[in-house]
Structure formats: structure tokens, C-alpha cells
Amino acid sequence: MMQPGTPGTDCTFADGANVLRTNIEQIYGGYPSRDGCPLATGEITDIADGTMFIGLQRYANEYGSPYKLCFGPKSFLVISDPIQAKHILRDANSMYDKGILAEILKPIMGKGLIPADPVTWSVRRRAIVPAFHKAWLNHMVGLFGYCNQGLIDSLYEASAKNDAPAGQSGGKIEMEEKFCSVALDIIGLSVFNYEFGSVTKESPVIKAVYSALVEAEHRSMTPAPYWDLPLANELVPRLRKFNSDLQLLDGVLTDLINRAKSSRQVDDIEELEKRDYANVKDPSLLRFLVDMRGADIDNKQLRDDLMTMLIAGHETTAAVLTWALFELTKHPDKLAKVQNEIDTVIGDRTPTYDDIKSMQYLRLVVAETLRLYPEPPLLIRRCRTENVLPKGGGREATVIRGMDIFLSLYNLHHDERFWPEPNEFIPERWETKYVNPDVPEWAGYDPEKWMNTNLYPNEVASDFAYLPFGGGPRKCVGDEFATLEATVTLAMVLRRFKFEFDSSKLAESKVDIMKHPEDLEHPVGMRTGATIHTRKGLHMVIKKREM
Ligand code: HEM
């Protein structure tokens, strides 16, 4: 009989007994334990205050990579080294699965790519990746412009209000929420041809999407899966509400799937990739998945694929937009450089695919934002087969079967050994290949080579020191889509508006500075969910830009 956790089987290592035994071995099986990793000790408040990734960074500075963290009977290895990240994500990928994350997300995403078991994952990944082909992405740039028009109109409305606090002039607006809305509108139209129109209105369906997102985040931050307890779904009001919202959303998705299936036109992938999108009524990704020859998949799988894309592709992009605007507002010289580029390349036009490629500085702003604020800041894995983690710049370790892993993108992206002035927002670092000239030899990473290959910042160019979209076989399928989306949105908004921080809200957002010295750098504060949020929104004063 196959054992749970054997690579290539369709299990996700959900056998609790094994996991518990591993954890008991880790903690109580003698110290130092068999894995050879130090145990980080500290206060639970170091990591339980809403910015867990910052607490994990402090420990990494003290203990190196990997170190072990225990919460009661649960323990995690925290990885902050590029060579070890490459091992887990790429070289030994089949020895790891999504572990606890899959358990948490399964009730929401079913067998979608993120929580899927290995067999389903490889079938669906092969079906979904071709849907993000060049002609489609090209067409999507126009769709991003269309969806942004609603955002621009609502920003004009806000800028005309003149209700800024004393000492400032302009209208007040909360931009994190606005970016969330436009990202939802974009994902709705592009993935399943559904017009949420959330920038301008509220609806039960929009509320249901947010409820699913909030619940997904809440679950990923909750140590005990109370939703699995008998009768919990009937008795706990938040679960009752969540289940009824999910039902509503499922109804909408099923309806869209049925409609797409009833007008199915079967084609080969090559034919689908040659589609003249300018004359296609429904250019959505759902249409592609339904029309693909040999793709007679059941409604449930399609529903899971769509729900996964909706959740994975919405908040991540909204967070990048939020932090890019935040950093540019903090750095007026860099904002001026971006606006100058936008004025020169597109002016008042809606950007095209070629325009985006020409706005090199704006694209580097997006890359640098993702370095400072990786979304998500931590990747989660569980070891399926015992294996040896290479030393890299840390220590060699044995990863015992069942061990849960936090791979900290935040630590990698703020590592001074690679990124001089790691906490500074310097988009130019990517132009001048401003990496540390003394990058250690073990990293196998050659700044000279990088300088000459002129690669856009990614995990390959940086040899896994910069992983905004992950790496290896589980790398994000929407990386180019998201980069284009963020660039179009920023170009359209920054061309037309000027922003300042709303001074009356900054003090409100600040928390205890002694406990959160980083808030000096982050006057709006940071809070983790699945992505990095502001503490209380990005409150801005907005004015029309004079041109
Ligand atoms: C996976 C980041 C946008 C769909 C991932 C992963 C990262 C990531 C880091 C790897 C997770 C892991 O290894 O555990 C981002 C960021 C985005 C973004 C920063 C925006 C700036 C999108 C969009 C879509 C999308 C727009 C879809 C339209 C997915 C899916 C996966 C994924 C389906 C799972 C892939 C798999 O397991 O095979 N994303 N993502 N993402 N992303 Fe994205």
C-alpha cells in the first residue's frame, strides 16, 4: 500500500498522526534534534502581533537559515537562504507539498492549483498555463485599460471634493480599497467574463468574494482548524455566514461555467492561441479552458480553478499597487521620474502592450515594490520525504518527513548580502544591477553575468535571491498578467492624479513605535494576512494633476 506523503501519489500528506510524531521528535526527541537546526526562543508576541514576517526576520538575523520555531506541539523550519529556497522550490520540489496551506484552503479552493494534490495539479497546470499565451495577454492590456476607466472616474470624483484635512487641499480617498476593487473587476472579466463593477457599486456577490477572501486569510492565520469540528459550520455564526456567501459565489460560477459550456467551440491549443481576440465576444480564461480540445472537465474542477485564480490573482496585485503608490508618495523624485516616463510614452492614451515594454522605469518600480513587499511574504511547504537541505549560506540540515516549512521571501528580499540598503526603495538598483559586489561565492551568483544578460528581475536572473512569483514548477501562472496589470493601472492613475498622505490619518494608523520601530519607515503600518496590508488603509489626499 502507498504510504501517505509518498511522492507521486495523490495524497497531500494530511496524515495528522505522522505530522504530530515528527513534531514530538523535533521538540522532545532530544536537543539538538536530529535535523541539526537551532530552536529559536522568544516571546510569542514577537510573531503574534500581525507582522509575523518581521518577527521571523529578527530571528533569522540571530539564528541564520534554517532555524526551528515551535508553537506548542507544532514546529516549523524557517528558511531564509537562496540556495535552500532553490532546493525546496525547484530541485527537490516533488519532496514537498503545500501542507498546512492546502488543508486550510481546500474547503474554499477545492482542487484548484494551489491546494491540489500532485496528480490533479500536474493535469490542471498543463491545461491552465497555455491559457496565459501572448495574444491573450496582449488583449488583456486593453481590458485592464477598460476596467481602470471606472477607477479613474471615481478618482476624479474624489479629487473634486476638496474635503482634505486642515493644511492640505484636495479630496480624501482610501486607495488600498480602490486598488482592491479595480483588481477584482479585472480578475472577474479576464478570468470568467463577469462584470463585478466593484469600483462603482456594492453587491451581494462582491460581498461574498470579500467574505471568501477574509475567511481564507483568517484561516491561514488561525492555529487550530476549528471549522473542522463537528457542528462548527452550523453553530459558529462566522462560519454560517461564510458558507452561505460561498454558496452564493458557487451559484454564480456554476452559472458562468454552464453558459460557457453551452456555447462551446472545440479547438486545438494552437488554434486557440491564434484567436483574433479583437473579434471575440468572450475572451475569458474560462472560455479557453472550456474550448480546449480534450478538455471535458467537470464543473466542479472548473469551479475550483476559477475560485483559485480569483483569490490568488486579486489581493496580490492590489497589494503591489498599494505599496507602489505608498513608496512613490514617500519619494517624490522617483514619482517625478515615473510620471515623466508615462507622459512621454503614453500621455492620455490607454497603454498598449508595447507601451508597457517601453516604460522600463515604471516596470522597475513594480519589481522593487515586490522586493520590499513580497506577496505573500512567506511560502508554506511540508516535507513529504526526508531529504538533506544544502548548506548555501546557512547550515546543512536534515528535513524530516512531515516537517512544516516557512520559506521567507521577505527575508530573502531584505538580505544585505545581496541587496545593498535593503530597506530602501531604489528601483534604479535593477538598472545598474546595484547588487552587492561582494556577493558570497556560495550563492553561485555572478553580478557581472547578470549585468550583461539584461534580464528583467526574476528568480532565474538572481539565482533565487529574488522570488516575487516563487520559482520552480509551482511558480505563479499569472506573473506576466500581474506585472502588466500593475503597470497599466499605475500608468493610468499617476498620469492623472497627485497624491499626498492624509496627515489626519497617519497618527491614527501608527502603533506603539517602541514595539514597531519599522513603523517609522512605514507611516501607514504593516499587517500580514495572505499578503502584506496596511494597518488601517492607505489614506491619501488626491488632486487632479495639472498638465
Ligand atoms: C502562485 C505571487 C498574481 C495565480 C503564486 C506564488 C507566488 C505568487 C509567490 C507561488 C506560491 C508558492 O510557491 O507557494 C503572485 C503575485 C502576484 C500574483 C506577487 C501579483 C503581483 C497572480 C495572478 C494570478 C495568479 C494575477 C491569476 C490570474 C496563481 C496561481 C498560483 C500562484 C494559480 C499557484 C500555481 C501552482 O501552484 O501551480 N503567485 N501572484 N497569481 N499564482 Fe500568483
TrEMBL record:
<protein>
    <recommendedName>
        <fullName>Cytochrome P450</fullName>
    </recommendedName>
</protein>
<feature type="binding site" description="axial binding residue">
    <location>
        <position position="476"/>
    </location>
    <ligand>
        <name>heme</name>
    </ligand>
</feature>
<keyword id="KW-0408">Iron</keyword>
<comment type="similarity">
    <text>Belongs to the cytochrome P450 family.</text>
</comment>
<keyword id="KW-0560">Oxidoreductase</keyword>
<dbReference type="GO" id="GO:0004497">
    <property type="term" value="F:monooxygenase activity"/>
</dbReference>
<keyword id="KW-0479">Metal-binding</keyword>
<keyword id="KW-0349">Heme</keyword>
<dbReference type="GO" id="GO:0046872">
    <property type="term" value="F:metal ion binding"/>
</dbReference>
<keyword id="KW-0503">Monooxygenase</keyword>
